[in-house]
Each structure stands twice: as C-alpha cells, then as structure tokens.
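Note to self: keep these together.
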Amino acid sequence: MTSTDNLAQYFDVNGYVSGLDVLSPQEVLEMRANFDKVEKDIGQENATYSLHNKHLTDEWVLRLTSHPNMLKPLKAILGPNLILLDSRFICKYPVGKDEEKEAFVAWHQDVRYWGVEGDVVSVWLAIDDADVDNACMQVIPGTHKSGLLKHITETKEGNLLSSNQSIPENLYDVNKAVHCPLKAGQMSLHHGLLVHGSGTNRSTRRRCGYVIRYVSTQANPIADADRPRSFPATVLVCGVNEPANFEDHAPEWFTWRNM
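Structure:
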C-alpha cells in the first residue's frame, strides 16, 4: 500500500488488509518475552483462549493496542476517534500429525457475537510468525458486503470458538479463500462482517496472535437478544470520546493516549 487512502479503499472493497508492519524487531522480542512469561505462569491450556482484556491490567498490552503504527491505518478506515472494544490473546498450539485431532476456527463473522451498530475492525497482531503451515487466518474477500449471515452449531469436533458456531457452507465460497500470513510484529485488519476462519496447526510451532476490536466513537452498543454483549473493557485509544456512546475504562496509568 502506497498511502493510507489506498489502504482504506482496498479495505472497503475487500474487507481486509494484511501484512502491515507494526513493531520493530526489538519490540517483537519484548512482546514475545512478556507473553512467554504470562504463558509460563498460567499454562498452555489457559493461554489458548482465556487471556481476555489484559489491556486493562498490563501496561505492555495496552501499549500494543495504542501503538502509533497500529492506529494510523485504523484511523484511515474508522476516523480519528477510536474506541477499543475488547481484546484477547489466542494461541493455537501444534497438534502434531494426528489427522484425527482437530483444533480449528470455523468460518464465522466477528459481529455475530457483538451487539454494535457501526463498523467493527478487528486487528490480528502476530506474536509468532503465522503462515500456512501453522494455520494462519484465512479470509473470503468481499463477504463483508453480504450482511450478517446465519450461523449454526458446528458439528465437527475441535472448533476453538467459544460459542461453537459456524456459517453453513452454502453461504460462502471456500474456493475464494485467501491466506493471511504474517511475520511476528505484523498485523492484519478485517471487517467485523468478513467471513474468516483458520485450520488446525499441524506444524511443530506455536501460532499466537493478539486480537483487538476497534470502533469509531460514533458506533453504538445495541440491545439485541440474539447478540447480547456488555462492554466492560472499552478504552478510548485515540482522539476524543464524542458522543460518549461507550464508557472509557482506561486505567489511571494510561498517560500516552494519542489525542
């Protein structure tokens, strides 16, 4: 991408953009060292999907969510005033060559689980290199234009989504899927309505990423019985919180906000 305007235009058409550089090599080493310590303290089973909203408690995590190189393309897409909705570390550990064991993320749309009116953009920041071998994310370009699709209960064992949902196969064309490989310290962005998923990690390497959701301050939380959601971890990371549709839960020590 030669400019943020081109990036925003590409994102509008395709619903994603990948391979964006965020962290320096030194920052990557620091991020991985911090995460490896957390992983050691809580164990791999808990590190798979249980590290939720640590931006409220860990300064190194909040610094990731407000990194200038992360915010610049987000501002090009969503505007200058940005709210962090939620964040989660997701680790997909190797399962080896056992073809009977699965640990995958079924095809889904993020906003199936989010009671929000307005565009949601998800960041996938790579802690480890993510590639085809260790089951990087796949997207189906343009599917964010199709609206919210029906989701059903996944019947195949091994779906890592906590709700165990998936989109029926007749509603998307898997032949149009595109892999989104990332080097550690790079990120991809995808629209909350984009159909995406990932396979089972049959490599010998961990595939860990940090997922962060952002909206413009113009977005609204909505009451939707089919998508119940509370927002206890929202933080204004950039600009001003107008019209204050989401509460700013920033820790007192968050002093480097980009205004």
